[in-house]
């Protein structure tokens, strides 16, 4: 786990939210499509909201890192090999595989690809289903899915390329 990359990637959803949901970008359209007013948004505990949002972003970055970095699969493939639980760095099978394949698919483009795939094939079905049952329109779905897809693409780029 690269905790620095995870920390940097965790900031992305918050920073993206400040831009994406700004009234000059898509904030006004989101308010209208969500059926809320600026007045109803006031009075919330913003410290709690942003604190939990950042915690959730950290959780997402932890989950996203093994998705965009295929080398994490080596640990599970070699899990039952002698020495893997004690110190994987001394396991010769692990070292050989990492020397040969350790940097494959570790690019910005690859991270973006996985982030977009996650947005389209995971976020869209989940948020879309919720929105349909909440009787929200397609504009609401696309604003939120677009935000998460772009956030995951940037997070994936950071996590994949940060070696």
List the helices and strands and how they pair.
Blueprint: H1 3-20, H2 27-34, H3 38-41, H4 46-68, H5 72-77, H6 92-101, H7 108-133, H8 138-161
Structure description:
- The protein has 163 residues and is mostly helical.
- Helices cover 73% and strands 0% of the residues.
- Helix 1 (3-20) packs antiparallel against helix 8 (138-161), helix 2 packs across helix 8 (138-161) and helix 7 (108-133) packs antiparallel against helix 8.
What number is the mean pLDDT?
90
Helix count equals 8
Order of helices and strands: HHHHHHHH
- The portion of residues assigned to helices is over 70%
- Supply Rg: 19 Å
Beta-strand proportion? under 5%
The count of DSSP E runs of length 2 or more, i.e. the number of strands, is 0
Shape: elongated
Low-confidence stretches: none
Distance between the termini: 11 Å
Describe the biggest sheet?
Answer: none
The helix-and-strand class reads mainly alpha
Provide a short characterization of the protein structure.
The N and C termini lie close together (11 Å).
Task: Supply the key terms.
single chain; elongated; 163 residues; mainly alpha
């Amino acid at each position: 786990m690269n905790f620095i990359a995870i920390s940097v990637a965790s900031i992305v959803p918050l920073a993206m939210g400040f831009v994406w949901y700004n009234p000059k970008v898509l904030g006004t359209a989101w308010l209208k499509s969500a059926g809320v007013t600026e007045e109803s948004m006031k009075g919330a505990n913003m410290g709690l909201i942003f604190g939990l949002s950042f915690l959730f972003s950290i959780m997402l970055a932890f989950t996203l890192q093994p998705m965009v970095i295929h080398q994490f699969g080596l640990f599970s493939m070699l899990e039952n090999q002698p020495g893997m639980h004690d110190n994987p760095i001394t396991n010769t099978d692990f070292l050989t595989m990492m020397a040969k394949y350790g940097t494959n698919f570790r690019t910005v483009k690859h991270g973006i690809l996985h982030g977009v795939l996650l947005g389209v094939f995971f976020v869209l079905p989940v948020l879309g289903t919720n929105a349909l049952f909440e009787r929200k329109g397609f504009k609401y779905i696309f604003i939120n899915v677009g935000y998460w897809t772009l956030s995951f693409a940037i997070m994936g780029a950071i996590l994949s390329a940060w070696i």
